[in-house]
Each structure stands twice: as C-alpha cells, then as structure tokens.
Amino acid sequence: MNFELTKEQQMIRDMVRDFAQNEVAPKAEHVDKTAEFPIETFKKMGELGMLGIPFPEQYGGSGGDTISYALAVEEIGRACGSTGLSYAAAVSLGASPIYYFGSEKQKQDHLVPLASGEALGSFGLTEPNAGSDAGGTQTRAVIEGNEYVINGEKCWITNAGYARTVIVTAVTGKDARGKNIISAIIVPTGTPGFTINSNYEKMGVRGSNTSELILEDVRVPTENILGDPQAGFKQFLYTLDGGRISIAALAVGIAQGAFDKALQYSKERKQFGQSISNFQAIQFKLADMAMEIELARNMVMKAAWLKDQEKPFSKEGAFAKLFASEMATRVCNQAIQIHGGYGYMREYEVERMLRDAKLMEIGEGTSEIQRMVIARNLGCGEKARVKA
C-alpha cells in the first residue's frame, strides 16, 4: 500500500492550508463571537476553485478527487470549524447530489454556478419530526400540471440563508407496498412561498449559517426533480455516505487545530521551574491526542480512496465519521485540560474548538446512527428501515 499523496493532492492541501491560515484563522474568533457567516471568505474560496475540487472541469470544477477534497476540508476546519462546516455542506450536500443524480441540463443550470464558486447550495432533509428517521419525512410534493407544489417544513439546514438552490426531500406518492416514495427536488431560494429563517442560537459552529425552511405552496417545474423520482431515498443515503467522509475530515481538522494549540502552550507554559511539556502527565496526553488524530486521518483517507475507486465505502465512511467525531471531542477536551484555567477562556480558542467539535457527533447521522450503519454492514440484526 502506498500512503503517499500525489503531487496534485499535495498542491491542493498546501494551497488550502496557506489560505486557511492567512484568511480563515484570523477571522475565526470574530465569526464565532458574532455568529456572522463569512461570506467574503467563501467568495475567495470560490475564486480559488475550492468549491469545485471534486467535480470535473466541464461543470466548473477543479477536476480533483475525494482525497483532495477531504484534505481541503481538514485544513479549513483546522482554522475554523464554522467555515469548515459550511464548506463541507456546500460541496457534499449542496452540489454533489446534482453531480451524482442530475440531468445534463440540471448540471449546467445548477451545478456549474456551485462548483465554480458563483453561488452556494444547500440540502433540505431534516425536519422537526424526521431527523435520524429520515424515512419519516412529512414534506409533501404533488404534481399540478407541469409543476410540483411543495408544502412542508425543514430545520437545521446548513447554508440555506445564503444559498442559490436547496435540494428538498419530499414525499411524492406511495409505492406498491404502500410505503412513502421520497423524491429530491431542486428549489431555487427565491421561489414564492419559500421562507428561510436563520434565527437559531447555537452552542458551536456559530458562524455556519443554520436555517429553518418553510414551504407553502412552493411551485417548481417538474423538470426540477433530481434523478429517478422513485429513488430519492437511495439518493440521499448515498449523499450522506459521502458527506460523512467530509464531516470526519472536518473533525480531524478541528482536533488538529486543538492539538496544535495544546502542544504550543505546553512548551511555553512554565510551572515548578520548567515547561509543562517536560511533565510525563502532559506528554502522555499529547501522545494519545496525536495518535488518535493520525488514526482518524488514515480512516478518512481510506474511505475517500474507496469512494474514488468506486468501491463500496458506506461502512468505512461510518467508521471514519464515528471515530473521528468522538476523537475530536476527546482531543479538544484534553486540549482545554492542558491549558488549565486559560483553556476555559475564549482568547485561547480551544474552548471554541470543543464547542464546534460536538456537532460532529450529531450532524450527518449521530454516533448512534453510525453504529447502526456499521452493524448492518456487518450483517447484524434484521433489515429494518434504513436511517440516516
């Protein structure tokens, strides 16, 4: 096995690292404190081609692969969890489904602006009564003439307040067994009846836009259906599988940022006449943190590689997301411990990283859902309704 990155992958990682440290990191504290979405940062990311890394050049992308994209997410997350989350959501959730399942016209009309960085996209799946149980979707879409009429409500939707389009999941009928057919529909955010509210007060990733969607008789052309109308459920499960790789990469980035702060502080902080990095208790903490980060990173890279090779990656994506997210919480918590009382203060930043890291255990499927996905891939239990 060859664990070396290609020259192209190294170039992308280094480019994004420079951008993240020079443009993203200096704004991270402000973004968290004010909960302002860093729109100017995203404009610059678009100009650099970062929003199109995993998409072909013919659709406005950079022609990179999933590994390159995961490396980019890690570097942005290392600098700012809020910016990293919105970046991951824009690519994995807002744009990727159109690339995977969209018609050529949909790709030209909707993917090109997203991949080229001209606009942001969003993915409206979660509802007040359909979170982990995505099959319990209550939003409805019925055909009237050549239009879908959509009614429903979505919650906790990333980037919707700044998005050009939202891919909305809705029940469009019943199958032969009487089960709901869930379809995915591309909805431009300026459509009449489509209301987007961004009023949430969050614990972490505060600068990542999180919105409530209300759809009241929202009409879109039937041509806005994404792929097979009967396959919307499978589509968003595949989308979430890929999204879990990006969330895992983001968790690794947040953890790496916290580790960097803890290591630097341990060398500068003196107690009992010497740097605390000389104390075995601190050394063991740092050793465990570094080990877990590297293990998680390797899991992310394997899942990304499998996806690039068009091999099954659902189990490995869940492995990576579960381990990396829980690892990030542990590492950030230990980073605060190493800082002591200073770690509890905003100016040392590690408390922000812990708050940001916690969402990684919830978004894109909770830790409990990841364990269910893994167990089912191992052949455990009866095959019940898949949850995401």
UniProtKB/TrEMBL annotation:
Residues 231-378 form the Acyl-CoA dehydrogenase/oxidase C-terminal domain. Residues 122-218 form the Acyl-CoA oxidase/dehydrogenase middle domain. InterPro entries: Acyl-CoA_DH_CS (IPR006089), Acyl-CoA_Oxase/DH_mid-dom (IPR006091), Acyl-CoA_Oxase/DH_mid-dom_sf (IPR046373), AcylCo_DH-like_C (IPR036250), AcylCo_DH/oxidase_C (IPR009075), AcylCoA_DH/ox_N (IPR013786), AcylCoA_DH/ox_N_sf (IPR037069), AcylCoA_DH/oxidase_NM_dom_sf (IPR009100). Residues 6-118 form the Acyl-CoA dehydrogenase/oxidase N-terminal domain. PROSITE patterns: ACYL_COA_DH_1 (PS00072), ACYL_COA_DH_2 (PS00073). Its cofactor is FAD. Keywords: FAD, Flavoprotein, Oxidoreductase. Belongs to the acyl-CoA dehydrogenase family. This is Acyl-CoA dehydrogenase. It comes from Alkalihalobacterium chitinilyticum.
